[in-house]
Design brief:
By secondary structure, the chain is of the alpha+beta class. It is built from 2 helices and 5 strands. The strands form 2 sheets. It has a 3-stranded antiparallel β-sheet. The protein has a two-stranded parallel sheet with strand order 4-5. The longest helix is centred in the C-terminal third of the chain and has 13 residues. The chain is rod-shaped.
Amino acid sequence: MGANSSDETTTVESGRLPGYNGPNKSISISEVVQPLLTPLDISGYPKAKFELEDRYIDEPRSLKVVVIGAGLTGITTGALLPRKVPGIRLTIFEKNSDVVRND
């Protein structure tokens, strides 16, 4: 395939560009690429009602954790989870009043 090159554009003189079904003529690469480089007009889209947080995914943050039930699993979770996950605010709910005594 013969090609002439200059500082700004490259012209294809023979052969066909992939996907080009027009007449066999010289075509400038800038004619093909330039429409792809124009910025998108996003002014027609509505503004988002939320804003994304600017933070790293592994940056620690405080979490609220609720455990329902003060049985064996609930108490074990209450004892082990704060050791594994720093910065949590843990609350254990239990329906039976005889499990916890608030004197």
